[in-house]
Structures are given as C-alpha cells and as structure tokens.
Design goal:
single chain; mainly alpha; 2 domains; 0% strand
Length: 89
C-alpha cells in the first residue's frame, strides 16, 4: 500500500489467517516495523485484538480532533471507548 492504509481497510499484506505476508521483507512499512504490541493490544482473543486496532485507528484518524467535529475531545474519547467495549463484548 504505497500511500499507506486507510483506517478501517484491511491491510492487503495480511494472509487469510491474519499473518503478515511481508513480515521479514525489506518492503515492510516502517510503521509496522516500529509497532511493539503490548499485552492489552493483543488481548485474549483475535476479536479483542481487532477491537484494539479499531480503537487506535479511531484515535489517530485525521478528523479525530478537528475543529469541525461536533464532539469535544473528551466526548470523542468516550465514544471510541464505548465502540471498543462494544466490539469486545
């Protein structure tokens, strides 16, 4: 994905069982190489891990703190937290 991956779009480098197809290749993006998963990121199940990734994508979306937003930053964080909890349940 030469221009990066859009939030919510599955990475084209993932195998059907969610393994990185370019893990040990030089073309692996720097952002992927720098990602250091923590226990809370991985969760206990793949569903929890995907929910956490969705949470990160929501928090890092360009419009997350935009002035045009109808929500305060605190409201956005609450909204994302509720989304994450819903995905895990």
């Amino acid at each position: 994905m030469p221009n990066g991956k859009t939030a919510g779009v599955r990475c084209m480098q993932l195998s059907p069982d969610n393994r990185c197809l370019i893990y040990d290749k030089p073309e692996k993006p720097v952002v992927c190489s720098n990602l250091r998963p923590l226990e809370e990121m991985c969760g206990q199940t793949s569903k929890e891990a995907l929910a956490y990734l969705e949470f990160l994508e929501q928090c890092t979306a360009p419009s997350f703190f935009s002035e045009e937003s109808h929500f305060s930053a605190q409201g956005k964080l609450r909204e994302v937290s509720q989304l994450m909890n819903a995905l895990i349940s």
